[in-house]
Amino acid sequence: MSVVDIKNLKKGYRDPSGVGMVPVLDIDTLQLEAGKHTALKGTSGSGKTTLLHCISGMILPDSGSINLLGTDITTLSESVRDRFRANHIGYIFQSFNLLDGFTALENVKLGMQFADKKLPASRAEELLVKVGLKDRLNNRPAQLSVGQQQRVCIARALANDPEIILADEPTGSLDPKTSAEVLNLIREVAEGKTLMLVSHEEQVLNQFDVQLNLETLNKAVTV
Ligand SMILES: Nc1ncnc2c1ncn2[C@@H]1O[C@H](COP(=O)(O)OP(=O)(O)OP(=O)(O)O)[C@@H](O)[C@H]1O
Ligand SMILES: [Mg+2]
User: Fold this and answer.
1) Structural domain span for residue 155
2) What's the CA-to-centroid distance between 222 and ligand 1, angstroms?
3) Could you tell me if residue 4 is inside a domain?
4) Tell me, what CATH number does 213's domain have?
5) Which tens digit of pLDDT belongs to each residue from 23-61?
6) What one-character DSSP code corresponds to residue 206?
7) How do residues 182-193 score in pLDDT, each as one tens digit?
């Protein structure tokens, strides 16, 4: 069964002059099967982040359908889409997007408020322990190393026990050793879940059974 089923997806951005549109994505079909881990590569600017933003419902495509777990999220209102994301999608950002004024524990707990499933609040702490931050629960992002901040993001992405995990170059800013640890951690916590992970690094891509190249998938030429 496809957990993610995309058809005829088109997304462009208005160019800065505001006159024309720059096409970024033009994808006939893309399917991600339940529980499969997929790596997505493509040159810088080819639209990988734009695709993940579309799948997560953070932005809407110009046309086409994005069916997640049987729901075409392009038909949902913004607030229903946000709720759908909270319930079903864990997103690991390259730039972390942690809230500066909040501790690691608070950052993980915050996202749990927006989901319909009411999982126990103790889950946030359990997840932080699982990602190796038992002794850093009350540190704010500025008081954490970059690798530790990424671990908070992983815990946050898992907080609502989502079926789908999207990870945008999660190891891009880490040294090789930490990068390998974080990648192993993501693959472990995403066991049984549908994962799409963006990476440029061959040693990361090689670990995935399914590898997609956005440049062959995409008919819009952006770079
Ligand atoms: N908000 C925006 N407004 C206008 N153009 C944008 C916007 N966001 C992205 N683009 C353009 O869309 C294209 C795809 O950008 P995107 O960030 O998806 O690429 P990417 O494959 O993730 O690149 P990278 O590997 O560098 O992260 C780029 O050419 C970029 O200039
Ligand atoms: Mg990107």
Assistant:
1) 36-60+77-217
2) 9
3) no
4) 3.40.50.300
5) 999 999 999 999 999 999 999 999 999 999 999 999 999
6) T
7) 899 999 999 999
Report yes or no on 13 lying in a domain: no
Q: Considering only CA atoms, which residue is closest to atom 25 of ligand 1?
A: 44
Does ligand 1 lie within 6 Å of residue 47's CB atom? yes
127, part of any domain: yes
CA of 220 to the centre of ligand 1 (A): 13
How remote is the CA of residue 46 from the centroid of ligand 1, in Å? 7
Residue 146: CB partners within 8 Å, gap ≥ 6? 173, 174, 178
Higher pLDDT, 201 or 59: 59
Atom of ligand 1 at shortest range from CA of 47: 18
The number of distinct structural domains making up the chain is: 1
pLDDT digits (tens, 9 = 90+) for 129-181: 999 999 999 999 999 999 999 999 999 999 999 999 999 999 888 888 888 99
Q: Which ligand is closest in space to the CA of residue 44?
A: 1
Nearest to 199 by CA among 188, 187, 190, 212: 212
**What's the rounded Cα separation, in Å, for the pair 138 and 106?**
8
| Range list of H helices, the chain | 48-56, 78-88, 104-110, 122-130, 146-158, 176-189, 202-205, 214-217
